[in-house]
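pinging the channel bc i need a second pair of eyes. not urgent but kinda urgent?? the chain im working w is below, pasted from the shared doc
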Amino acid sequence: MASRARASFLIASFIAVVGLIVSMGLYAFPTPLPILPLGEYTRYITIVLIILATKLVMELVKPLFRRALVKKISHEADIYALFQLVSYLIWAGVIIWLLFIVLGGQVVDVLSLVIPLAALFIVLQKPLLNLFGWGVLVTRRLYKLGDRIEINNVRGYVTQISLMTTLVREFGGWMAGDTFTGRYVAIPNGYLLEHNLYNYTRDTEFIWDEITVSVTYESDHKVAEKYIRDAAEDVVGDLMRNNRNVVRNKYEFADLATYMVEEPTITTDFSSSSVLMHLVYFCPSYRRRYYKSEIVKKVLEKFAADSRVAIAYPHMEIVPYKTADMEVEPQDLLSEMKR
């Protein structure tokens, strides 16, 4: 869909640029064409022409830019960041050029326009920030209706987007997991410029989750790992394999997709009193709590049926202290502790 949209935009931009050039009489065909009476709108047509031409050139240059640097820069993310920097500099120059076109190149006129705008921005800072945030939201498509987002510690399902606020049906909050609380929360659009935005469902409905199981050091860790993996396979194994291409295609760069886990995976770590086994998997965001619960129940069932494995938990164990000529019994230690 993204490639089709880009192709459609390139074709439309090219046709618009050619049409404007012809209509303004900037190109003389062998057979003269009628020139439209656009003299009084020449300045505005020039602005539109410059914007479209700049956008068209940037879209055409982008793949060439990547192709030229792909052998010199190993990561596509670095190439993309460099191109973004170049594009920002180009657009900054174009905007300055357009300002001089609109104001006729008069520096005094530029100052007379900037100073009142700055004063207006100070007076109406919050509403203008919300409007600007809405503009960023619409142009960058940071989220849309139906997305599950988190911003400024508020998580919710987007139900309405207006000029000033985004309305979400809240989940989480005082509820465990991603259960809806029943409240609606109005989030000012200006928060997009001040806080981190987390979108659970921008590309796909799937998100990653992790379950940590504490296993005692005395357990058979190979058996414990097998039971955890089997539990995950029963719940999300087929789901992950059937949707791995969907998840893989959401990554912007090929080098990111190479690190993707395509089936339930376990990593192991030490802690002070147990071995930590971390199960990593992905599932639909709106049923994350359900899948986590099902995996945990199956792990508990498998561990309970085999004495070779046990889940570690905080507890106190009293070990009798012995020397060559004496022996201290546990009940004696308890009596001493009570004193």
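so The two ends are 76 Å apart (CA to CA). and The chain has three domains: 2-123, 128-199, 206-304. — does that match what u expected or am i reading it wrong
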